Amino acid sequence: MRQAGRFLPEYRKIREKHDVISICKNPELCAEVTALPVARLGVDAAIMFADIMLPLEGMGVKFEIKEKVGPIIKQTITNANSANALQTLDSENDVRFVLDAIRATKKKLAGKVPLIGFCGAPFTLASYMIEGHPTRDFIKVKTLMYRDPEAWRLLMNKLAQSMSNYLQAQVKAGVDAIQLFDSWVGFLNPQDYREYVLPYSRKILEDLKGAGVPRIHFGTGTSHLLEEMRNAGGDVIGVDWRTPIDTAWERLGTDVGIQGNLDPSVLLGDMEFVKSRAADILKRTAGRNGHIFNLGHGMLPDASPENTAKLVQFVHESTSAR
Questions:
Q1: Is 153 a catalytic residue?
Q2: What average pLDDT does this structure show over 203-230?
Q3: Is 2 known to be catalytic?
Q4: Considering 44, 51, 90, 100, which one is annotated as catalytic?
Q5: Confidence of residue 4 (pLDDT cuts 50, 70, 90)
Q6: Are the C-beta atoms of 226 and 218 separated by less than 8 Å?
Q7: How many angstroms separate the CA atoms of 113 and 38, rounded?
Q8: Under 8 Å between Cβ of 187 and 142
Q9: Tens of pLDDT along 242-259?
Q10: I need a surface site. Which of 192, 225, 260, 289 has the fewest CB within 10 A?
């Protein structure tokens, strides 16, 4: 995940001239950035270079991406009126640049590897829209959830419908798999997840059920929510590094695949250390079908591109006989 992030020198050179949003809104440049890790690292799939905030602009939300801070929204959602004022995303018009970038990327990849599209899950997007910036306590989010359930339902319904539209448009444009990315949902307890989040994530994943592409459902800090996330839906459940992968699979059952779950910080160690940790994950999965070897979250800026490429090669060599 976050394949073309800050750790690739080729990407850093591009960022010297372009900010993230500018890259995303330039289909040819976006395709170039998306394809970089395929050649550089030898990965088995490309992940669209995009930002989860992009579709919010089409819903009437103005934001900026502040370096080393994250998304900043000045006009936050505070009540039912502000939630009701949001528009439902019209993907073909509001995020056409993303769809054009998908088509350009597919052409550039020329069938070498599949392309993964994604969107932010309703809870994670709502968190930014309510708090106005990244947060560690989610006080405003939980206050709205608990005190104004009507506003919460309005907001989450609009986000669920909009993200469903967005992912379906991505599939139509050519992505080969989709991922629902719930970065912040791990801050909720299981009861709140079931009541305030699950119905909306389920709607998106159910809407994509007949799209003919695998559906990956991912969150971080979700070891206490794995069963709930499985119940929300998805063909594959992403697992971060906090839960042993074999334990997670025992809890999730045999009817889903699993993605993960090397700690991204392992790539800061030497290669022998990286190989030992990767080998442990492969041993725990024991060659079981449905495992997508991946990091437990995104690439860290200080990760070595060389060691990352060697990790990919090691996994390929270790599993080639299976």
A1: no
A2: 97
A3: yes
A4: 51
A5: low
A6: no
A7: 8
A8: no
A9: 999 999 999 999 899 999
A10: 289
* Tokens 């912040």 -> residue: 184
Please name every residue paired with 47 in a beta bridge, in sequence order, or none if there are none.
116
Q: Are 50 and 169 in contact (CB under 8 A)?
A: no
Q: What is the DSSP string of 267-308?
A: GGS-HHHHHHHHHHHHHHHTT-TTEEEEESSPPPTT--HHHH
Decide if 246 contacts 283 (C-beta within 8 A).
no
Average pLDDT of the segment spanning 200-221: 97
Structure tokens at 162: 């909009």
Return d(Cα 33, Cα 236) in angstroms, integer: 26
Q: What is the C-alpha separation between 23 and 184, in angstroms, rounded?
A: 25
pLDDT band for position 14 (50/70/90)?
Answer: very high
Q: Is the dihedral of CA 58, 98, 258, 40 positive or negative?
A: negative
Domain spanning 9-238: CATH 1.10.3720.10? no
- The pLDDT value recorded for residue 6 is 77
* Helix intervals (H) in the chain: 9-15, 20-24, 27-41, 54-58, 80-84, 91-94, 96-109, 122-131, 139-147, 149-173, 190-196, 198-207, 226-232, 245-252, 271-285, 305-319
Q: List phi, psi (to 5°) of 281.
A: -65, -45
pLDDT at 1: 58
**Cβ(167)–Cβ(99) below 8 Å:** no
Annotated catalytic residue, options 11, 40, 94, 128: 128
**What pLDDT is stored for residue 67 in this prediction?**
84
Instruction: Answer whether 0.90 is exceeded by the pTM.
Output: yes
Q: Which of 23-27, 66-70, 135-139, 157-161 is least confident?
A: 66-70
Residue with tokens 């801050």: 187
